[in-house]
Amino acid sequence: MYRSHVLVSGNEESVIKKIVADLNELLVKHRLQNDVKVLVTYSLNDDDKISLIIYPEGTQYYDVEGYDKLEKIVSRHLAEGVIVKELLAKGEEKTDEQKESESEFINRQFRVVLKNSGIIDPESIDEYIAQDGYQALGKALTQMTPEQVVEEIKASGLRGRGGGGFPTGKKWEFACKSDDPIKYICCNADEGDPGAFMDRSVLEGDPHAVIEAMAIAGYAIGAHKGYIYVRAEYPRAVSRLEIAIAQAKEYGLLGKNIFDSGFDFDLEIRLGAGAFVCGEETALLTSIEGNRGEPHPKPPFPAVKGLFGHPTVLNNVETFANIPQIILKGADWFNSIGTEKSKGTKVFALGGKIEHVGLVEVPMGTTLRKVIYKIGGGIPNGKKFKAAQTGGPSGGCIPAEYLDIPMDYDNLIGIGSMMGSGGLIIMDEDNCMVDMAKFFLEFTVDESCGMCTACRVGNKRLYELLTKITDGEATMEDLDKLEELCYYIKDNSLCGLGQSAPNPVLSTLKYFRDEYIAHIKDKKCPAGVCKNLITFEVLPDECTGCGVCKKLCPVGAIKGEATEAHRIDKDKCIKCGLCMEKCKYNAIVKR
Amino acid sequence: MKENNGFCFTETPEQKAKMEALLAEYGGDETNLLVVLQKAQDIYGYLPIEVQKKVADGMGVSMEKVYGVVTFYHFLRTDPLGKFNFSVCMGTVCYVKGAGMINEKLKEVLGIDDGECTPDGVFAIQPTRCIGCCGLAPVMFVNDDVYGNISQYDVENIVDIYRKRARNL
């Protein structure tokens, strides 16, 4: 038993290690090593500073790097119980009203998937068990038949969180009905959508939840072997999974005869190797088999003929993280959260032009307005909301007119976007939608596996057309071609990657066609992003001739005598924007 | 098939022994190919033709299959890395916050293109996909050091830190 727990969170592994070592040394020095435990948790910070949270008080310290700062915290807070005011996190020293607004980011969420993240020590199976961990597995194995487990998941209405939204229970049922003696459970942890990091946080913050869920799934369909396919880019997630699997084996929660039920289940980790297409289920399974990760036509679906030719259930990390609680609390409880056709919660990775960046878990059907303004704290610098991008390179954008639409699978598809894995990127008036579409296309061009011509060549052409538009060299005919090509690619690609690759273009065309037209007809980029279409000018009335911009300009494009208005040589200007950023008098504008 | 770009492949006795042990452990099962390649890259740092041949022979699979898998995955490299590898995260959030400009500046400062290594083998640029720390956007890595919330104006200073370190190597 420990009197206090110190939770260390940050983003830099080397700094965290140093802090933990220093803290442990200080604890020994103050003879507190048996009373206080130091833990490393998943970071919810949005910068490179290190935070400490001390429980049970819940005191938050911020920016604690440095031995003397740690010494203060240990000698005063932990030894004497006196709070070190000067190191308190920002929210802590504020008025009650301000405190409330900062804690709203957490309090206004509804946490099912993330319930343990940042609360328990992910490297301790005991702490997971203390939070009702592995009880669901026990319940399933000792009190339920495999069919009952499948029924429970079906009744809960849980749908795949990886993007498609296929009912999880149905998938399990297909695999359960097969009489093939060899079956597999796979976990898709190849989170590749740029801007999405919810799977990473579950794996790093609560790895046992995924392991428990996979064992339950194995029992339900009659599989004895599971694979977790995780991105090699997530080394911390991989090491935590390795630790968690070893602990579960040691406790007899994985391996032979689990809970004395006669059920055997074993897990293995496979590392991805940086191919986005491997997030597609058939491609992922091919990759586990050691091949190039190219997709296959469906049917046969993996639930019928999957890994090594045997029935396979493949679910995403977030989907699995819901399972233990559904088994424990029942389908009715899960059913009561969310909308009619989308049950439960969804974790969004909120990013981009937003005050509070981070993971947000809310019930399905929560409006975008609530997520942005109530939880996310709104758009910084008083800028106007322009659009939210959901579903990464496969999704689309949501314009301001749909801020109040309840976000669930069907509504998002209805407005030309998709849930995807849950990346939610907020854009303000300074983001150019054509440039954004181009960015996603560049990604798909790079990640297309090259099997289908429509995807391999079509997306490249699509990218070239978009480049033409952002360079100001396109005609209105190109715009028609662009649209036609989009539908062609969608219709003629085999897998989800190709079929959804044109979505960012189609949805921006739908809601921001005027921006495309401005690029083509007026040769202007309304947001001032596309370099070929903008110029920098000095406002002669505002310019004091201080000469700062002249000195800074990397190409010597700014001319002018001291104390007289300067001018910019447009032929020389490389549009880096440095002058505008550094002008104290706001005398330089972008047109 | 791409031959090594002017880099001469050499191996230490230690690397050779590790590779042999790796093939002895995993070589028997063809479905371990990707695992073996990942571990071989850990041993050598990259997968030149010579290493690919070892894998093909050791596992009894065809050279074209090995080459096919190596070239399919971004994570598997046929070129060696530099002593200091710069990677700018090209995830959506970083991009929205200016990662594109940072990468351009980096290429200009180092005088090499994406995926290339300076001729002296010291610096390399490897742009990366979203690494999931969007809270720090835009993010740049140099080996294991993380630089978050940076702009293109910081690039020169960051590179200088490693130029100094390179001199002391």
Description:
The complex is a heterodimer of chains A (591) and B (169). Chain A has 5 domains: 4-93, Glutaredoxin; 125-335, NADH-ubiquinone oxidoreductase 51kDa subunit (Rossmann fold, 3-Layer(aba) Sandwich); 345-428, Ubiquitin-like (UB roll) (Roll); 433-520, de novo design (two linked rop proteins) (Up-down Bundle), CATH 1.20.1440; 535-590, Alpha-Beta Plaits, CATH 3.30.70. Chain A contains 23 helices and 18 strands. Chain A has a 5-stranded mixed sheet. In chain A, helix 1 packs across helix 2, helix 6 (135-143) crosses helix 13 (317-329) and helix 17 (433-447) packs antiparallel against helix 18 (453-470). The radius of gyration of chain A is 27 Å and the shape is globular. Chain A starts with a strand and ends with a strand. In chain A, 50% of the residues are buried. The model of chain A has no long low-confidence stretch (mean pLDDT 90). Chain B has a 4-stranded mixed sheet with strand order 2-1-3-4, covered by helices on one side. With 169 residues, chain B is α+β, with helices and mostly antiparallel strands. Chain B has 7 helices and 4 strands, in the order H-H-H-H-E-H-H-E-E-E-H. In chain B, strand 3 (140-142) and strand 4 form a beta hairpin. Helices cover 46% and strands 8% of the residues of chain B. In chain B, helix 3 (49-59) packs across helix 4 (63-72). Classes of the chains: A alpha/beta (591), B alpha+beta (169). Chains A and B meet through strand 10, strand 14 and helix 17 of A and helix 2, helix 4 and helix 5 of B.
Order of helices and strands of chain B: HHHHEHHEEEH
Global mean pLDDT of chain A = 90
By DSSP, the count of extended strands of chain B is 4
Based on CA inertia axes, which overall geometry of chain B fits?
A: elongated
Judged by helices, strands and strand pairing, the structural class of chain B is alpha+beta
In the CATH scheme, the class of the largest domain in chain B would be Alpha Beta
Quickly count the helices of chain B. Answer: 7
Poorly predicted tracts of residues of chain B:
none
